[in-house]
Amino acid sequence: MSGPTRAPTLADVAASAGVSLSTASLTFSGNKPVSATTRERVLAAAAELGYSGPNPLARNLRQGRSGVVGIAVGQLSTAFRDPAALAMLDAVSEVLGAAGLGLLLMSDDDDHARLPLDAVIYDICGRETWAAYADLVARDVPLVVVEGPAWPGSTYIDIEHRVGSAALAEHLHALGHRDVATVTLAASHPQREREAGLRDVFPHARVLGACESDVAAVQSLVAHHLDDRGPVTAIVCQSDVQAAGVVLEARRRGLRVPEDLSVAGFDGVATPWLDLELTTVVQPLADKGHATAEAVLGRIAGADVSDVLLPVALRVGDSTAPA
Fold first, then answer.
1. Does the pTM exceed 0.85?
2. Residues near 144 by Cβ (< 8 Å), separated by ≥ 6?
3. Which of 73, 94, 96, 289 could form an S-S bond across to 79 if both were Cys, CB 3.0 to 4.6 Å?
């Protein structure tokens, strides 16, 4: 019985086409021009032998690259539950995938910095310091930070958190609301900026608490506040998922939204489990993801990449009404 057939190699293709190994390699890489006649002969030989092309991983390793970009997202479970995070990750993977790069989702554990990555995206983590940062800089690994600390040597992608929150607060103020409370995200750059925008209009807004973008967590957080909400006529949340949780818990306790309580969010994501459209600040999630990925590609190519600040827009929905 004969053994397994050996897979054809580029050397086999070159021999069959009657060209040098370097010419066969250039035919597949496209790094330098090869005559049309030679190219057709090489490709015909490859097709006859069943050779599909060079191993991209081997090529990347020869170039000192892994072909993989890491993206630190804090807790992986949180990222998969947050529709805003998912939309951004989808846009990042769309651009990087088209460029032939893989995307490695990872927590913000410091050990991940030691992986052989072509670049690292630091997103929705919230940490002000990251020991891995120093290691990445020392190894000259391109770093793109999304809505986080503007670390030296990194490219920074952000949105107008404060501007958007202020516009939302002004909308509520125009409706006659004066006693406003807020549910915040965990301590982070977006949390501080969104709260600052709210306080530009309502400096004494009461903080009900902080939690992640999770409906059940928000319901648990605001439950006792809704039993005795005092003079509060509106609750502003720092994500739409939080706002949806407030709406559901308010209704569970017999409060009408927006007649008894106005509720607003941030992000502009779809909330199909609600029968009303939230008043919210819409952020350009796809544009943010594309800008992040384009910054990564530019940094890998050695280009100077500028920071990006994306605009947001107020969208008035059905969850806010006059006080």
1. no
2. 119, 120, 121, 122, 154, 155, 156, 157, 292, 295, 296, 299
3. 73
